[in-house]
Amino acid sequence: MLNFRSLLVIPVAMAISPIAAQATPIHWGNNLDAALNKAKASHTLVMVDFYTTWCYWCKQLDAHVYPVPSVESALSKIVPVKLDAEKNGLSAANKYKVTGYPDLVFLDPQGNMISSITGYEPAPQFTHDVNAIVTRYHNSLTQLPLIKQELSKTPNSASLLSKEIILCAGVNDLSGVKAALPKLLKASGSSPSIIMKAELAVGDMYSRSGDYGKAVSHYKKALPLATEPKDMASTRISIASCYLQQNELKAALPELQAVVAIKHCPPSLLAEAQQTIPQIQNALKGKN
Predict the structure, then answer these.
(1) Taking residues 87-113, what's their average pLDDT?
(2) Which of 69, 78, 175, 184 is 20 to 30 A from 198, comparing alpha carbons?
(3) Which structural domain range is residue 128 located in?
(4) What pLDDT is stored for residue 112 in this prediction?
(5) In this predicted model, what pLDDT tens digit does every residue of 155-190 receive, in sequence order?
């Protein structure tokens, strides 16, 4: 699911984590091609920090997030690059459809976009998100060959096909997803839960790549299959997030109102929806 809070243009209070120990500076690169070559040699990801000289939140990342030891540890697992989106990073920013700052884009060694973090995040959330992106990528690299090997023996296994889709989606392998998803839908052992997880993973993949229309399509296919309050709420929040990315406030609002109406909705998701609904309503009033 997208970082829902970072989608809102409305300012929020910063949570700044104290630095527990003297930090070792992150070794930033300033050349994307060199970074990709380094990533190929080390079989890891590149994180591109697209910034501008006038961006307030970019400066807050530099001052209050990057010096934190947990963040340094997370970034030590990848190749970090800083590019001024209006100067040396202009062509790359256009290529990866960067429109707001800061925008942190994660690339595989071939330069394919794997994920992104949009906007400012305090150090604990940033650390969590970076580690999750790196873990998902390396899990896909190590597990996907094994799943494909098993599928060669049992090609109609719904469980294996679902795992293949989730792993392919985790590294934005669109061709792998397109090949496996129709097979999963036809497989005899495909349960609603198995299909739901696959559709959600595909939706997340399209969300990360900025194709929000396709993401919504897959989220909406997953929604009727969700039976647990957590799955229902998180799926609707994902749909709302996509609408907000496209500035479709009227479409996002009923999705969040539906979250509030879900019985036994997890408190964190309920609070997220309840806090955002009035902000959207106020923004809609301002448009009238």
Answers:
(1) 92
(2) 78
(3) 10-133
(4) 87
(5) 999 999 999 999 999 888 889 999 999 999 998 778
Structural domains of the chain, count:
2
Task: Write the CATH number for 14.
Answer: 3.40.30.10
Q: String of b and e for 92-119 (b: at least 16 CB within 10 Å)?
A: bbeebebeebbbbbbbbbeeebbbbbbb
Please report, for residues 38, 120, 144, 166, the alpha-carbon distance to residue 176 in angstroms, rounded to integers and kept in the order given: 26, 32, 10, 10
Return the ∠ at Cα 38 (arms to 87 and 107), rounded to 5°: 60
pLDDT for the residue 3: 38
What values do phi and psi take at 116, rounded to 5?
A: -155, 160
Q: Would you call the peptide bond into 102 cis, given omega within 30 degrees of 0 as the criterion?
A: yes
Same domain, 77 and 179: no
pLDDT at residue number 12: 30
85 domain residue, yes or no:
yes
Same domain, 147 and 281: yes
8 A C-beta contact, residue 137 and residue 171: yes
Query: Residues 154, 159, 162, 167: what is their CA dihedral angle, to the nearest 10 degrees?
Result: -80
Residues 100 and 170 in one domain: no
Asked if residue 119 and residue 155 are part of one domain, the reply reads no
Looking at the domain assignment, is residue 4 inside a domain? no
Q: Which of 190, 196, 59, 58 is CA-nearest to residue 117? A: 58
Q: What pLDDT does residue 173 have?
A: 87
High-pLDDT (> 70) share of the chain, %: 91
Query: 242 and 279 share a domain?
Result: yes
Is the same domain home to 196 and 267? yes
